[in-house]
Design a protein that fits this description.
Layout: E1 2-3, E2 20-22, E3 24-26, E4 29-31, E5 38-43, E6 48-54, H1 58-77, H2 80-109, H3 113-130, H4 133-136, E7 141-146, E8 149-157, E9 160-164, H5 172-183, E10 187-191, H6 198-210, E11 217-219, H7 224-232, E12 236-242, H8 245-257, E13 261-265, E14 270-274, H9 280-292, E15 302-308, H10 312-324, E16 328-329, H11 343-358, E17 362-365, E18 371-373, E19 384-387, H12 394-397, E20 404-410, H13 413-422, E21 425-426, E22 428-432, H14 436-445, E23 450-453, E24 469-470, E25 473-474, H15 481-487, E26 489-497
Parallel strand pairs: 2-6, 9-10, 9-12, 10-11, 12-13, 14-15, 14-22, 15-20, 16-18, 19-20, 22-23
Antiparallel strand pairs: 1-18, 3-4, 5-6, 7-8, 8-26, 13-25, 17-19, 21-24
The structure holds nicotinamide-adenine-dinucleotide.
Nicotinamide-adenine-dinucleotide is lined by residues 164-169, 173, 191, 193-194, 223-224, 227, 242-244, 247, 265-268, 299, 399, 401, 427, 468, 472.
Length: 513
Amino acid sequence: MTTTSTSDERPAVLDPEEVGLVQHWIGGEPVPSASGRTGDVFDPALGVVTKRVGLADQADVDRAVAAASAAYPAWRDLSLARRQSILFRFRELLEAKKDELAEIITSEHGKVLSDALGEISRGQEVVEFATGLAHHLKGEFSEQVSTGVDVYSIRHPLGVVGIISPFNFPAMVPMWFFPIAIAAGNTVVLKPSEKDPSAANWLGALWKEAGLPDGVFNVLHGDKTAVDGLLMHPDVRSISFVGSTPIAQYIYETAAKHGKRVQALGGAKNHMLVLPDADLDLVADSAVNAGFGSAGERCMAISVVVAVEPVADALIERVRERIAGLRIGDGRRSCDMGPLVTRQHRDKVASYVDVALEDGAEVVVDGRDVAVDGDANGFWFGPTLIDRVPTTSRVYTEEIFGPVLSVVRVGSYEEGLALINSGAFGNGTAIFTNDGGAARRFQHEVEVGMIGINVPIPVPVATFSFGGWRQSLFGDTKAHGAEGVKFFTQQKAITSRWLDPSHGGVDLGFPRS
Ligand code: NAD
């Protein structure tokens, strides 16, 4: 057992010759970066660089888009039945090999193995949804809209689609998009986070094993240069982005300016409203699970508990007891919570404890003093509970994206609701109560995209669509479900008439009957 608070030691960097290089995956094979630029990939539980990732320049972007463009016509033209069988095979391989992927995720992101497996299952749900492509792509048909005339619609793929994903779900977030995009007949260039790039390559190799033609799924690694290359590339038809709000807004504006269809999911600050009649043990379990799971690095994490008095004291006591029972440490050692993704992010999250103290909040549990089962150089920061957080404090107004749970005390349901509706973000929220009428009123009155009723992380299943309101989503189309199918297809409406001997000759007006 190692006890560490704030380690100021710089992480040891292994000899570059000793660490692996994560290359692009283009045209069904690893491809070195033309730029020669690389980024460090850490194992956050060890605090060392374990790999380097090639960072794309424009030549790499062009190569990936060219591979996707070349693969598009044949993939678009492949029968639904053939596409479907490849998706089924991908699903079976993913199920059989998911432990390998989970280990990769834990080694680069830091989340515990069980949580990495959880993220894979949620992504797999979308693959399973996409296997129904023959149903999802069905068009509409109206017979005899005018005499001898039928109208029908077809859902047609877009072409080459770009996906840009964040570090916190290196497998699940790309899987929100690419199974549906591929099922619909598009070809994909995925630009994953440079912080944990290997999951994307693993998925590329899995597609190849499943029989996907080379070039249908490509992975381009990199930073802003790679992203901008995709946003401005004339052959990229759409952009699906998930990440922080400032970047989501930039992506939305830039991609739209370059004529692309865009969905850009941004940041979050999710509130849990606790009414006085709620079951406080359920609330405490839920707040701890949703606040500290994946070290709070989830866009659907609960970061603010809004306690309608008089519940706050009793609830805080229960949360504090549960925090004391958590094991923090290396995700490979059956711990409950792992490290943060980088030292820089860890330090930023830790800095909010000072902000809380300066702003007059009460730090009930301080994550800087955490005892861990892991290497002293890991990027550790423990579960943190802060009571009486002023709503003017940056602890309340900013997305912290770490294991920091704030408590705001309010006097009534109305006060809590007004607080939630006044926030900049509208990703997720939850109400805890045993009053069905109050819950129903909340689902109607709250201005947030995803709502839980006695469910702390209300991520919709793949048959529904995922996305928030306000600054949590730029664009009008959410991820997966029916909206995902709509995003990755464009409609053709066909008006058809097969002439028969009774056709009426020349008529310059609209058809009337
Ligand atoms: P990020 O915005 O820093 O990065 C996301 C992607 O954008 C990465 O691929 C990155 O390489 C790229 N990028 C970063 N800076 C860029 C720039 N200046 N120009 C162009 N591209 C750039 O986000 P992150 O730190 O990787 O992920 C955490 C954030 O993602 C949090 O804000 C979290 O709430 C959000 N998130 C939102 C959802 C959602 O569904 N709304 C889901 C997961 C994560």
